[in-house]
Amino acid sequence: MTLHLPLGFRFAGLHAGIMKNPQKEDLTLIHCPGGAVAAGTYTTNLVFAAPVALDRARTPSGDIRVVIVNSGNANACTGERGMSDCREMARLASDAVGAKEPQALVMSTGVIGHFLPMDKIAAGAKKAAGQLAEGEAAFLAAARGILTTDQGMKIASRQVELGGKTINLAGMCKGAGMIGPQMATMLCVVCTDAMLMPAEAQAALKFAVEESFNCISVEGHMSTNDTVLLLASGAADKKPLGNKELPLFEAALSEICIDLGKQIANDGEGASHLITLDVRGCKTREAARQIAKTVANSALVKTAISGADPNWGRIVSGAGYAGVAFDPAGVDLSINGHLLYERGAPVPFDAKTVSQSIKGSRDTSLVLTFREGNASVRFWTSDLNVDYVRFNSDYTT
Predict the structure, then answer these.
(1) Is 375 exposed, middle or buried (0-12, 13-18, 19+ CB in 10 A)?
(2) Most buried one in 137, 181, 197, 350, CB count within 10 A?
(3) Does domain 10-266 have CATH number 3.60.70.12?
(4) pLDDT for 178
(5) What is the pTM of this model?
(6) 185 is catalytic
């Protein structure tokens, strides 16, 4: 894929010794020497990590110079020491690039309840600062440095023409398990060289997150660390985007976030299917999302897809306990384009054909149609199989 890297950023990723695998990058620096407008959305879990507390207090901002990310340790549920270590991480990163401590943001991901190895982070931050560079190799190293149980990098980029200027956006994220965002383990940073005001950046990010990361789930477990950051350097054009350009920028940002969100759902630990669930014909978008989220988080639905079983009853009944009022006699369900259920009653279908359509492709489409209104939502999740259980049953041991 072609990477459209934004101007005004430098990247680095390296192994600092936080994770056991010496071949695995576990510390990332993202540096904006000229300063970036920064926006953030965060987990809504009442139990949240120290970096979430720090970043939440610092965004939106008009002048962020550096983001430091570590993998292998979440720095969550670590009390006052965890908060102190987080502030020290910010200081180490800012000192390493010649910025001020309030100009730094921090993200952490990994095991909950362990204190950070600050000696390794201190050495890693200094070393990473010496490796900061522009270009694809540095960006990819940074993208690898934020991963934990992921099967590979999750990156996306776009290039758009706005007001006669070429604007670039590039994002990286991590996440495979403990995915149930409601912004809301996942981390994401999207960098752009567009010129945005802090309020505009925050509004654009909120819109994009609603369309993407708030519409994915692996097992519905909301993390303590979920963070999405948007950094805008303004290096492509010092003139702020106008009223005509902002919606186009929001669309490009949403495309990137949807792309990254789908990659997270597709990488659900042990997943063999990416499930795209379309819920249509609801009174409100929030009602549609509540139904989609309930169905997507159903272990019975997930295991049915894993086994290529077109068990439509699990899907329909899942919608019924979502807490959203609807007329059961007005519901249709299709799987991979095959109509199984119409106006509240089953219709004849070839079970073997539908089963083979599930088994023969990693992508599975579920479409639930109601007759309550015009609101709809698209939601992504993964199936659930023995590999997920095996991995997560011995994650810390």
Answers:
(1) middle
(2) 181
(3) yes
(4) 47
(5) 0.89
(6) yes
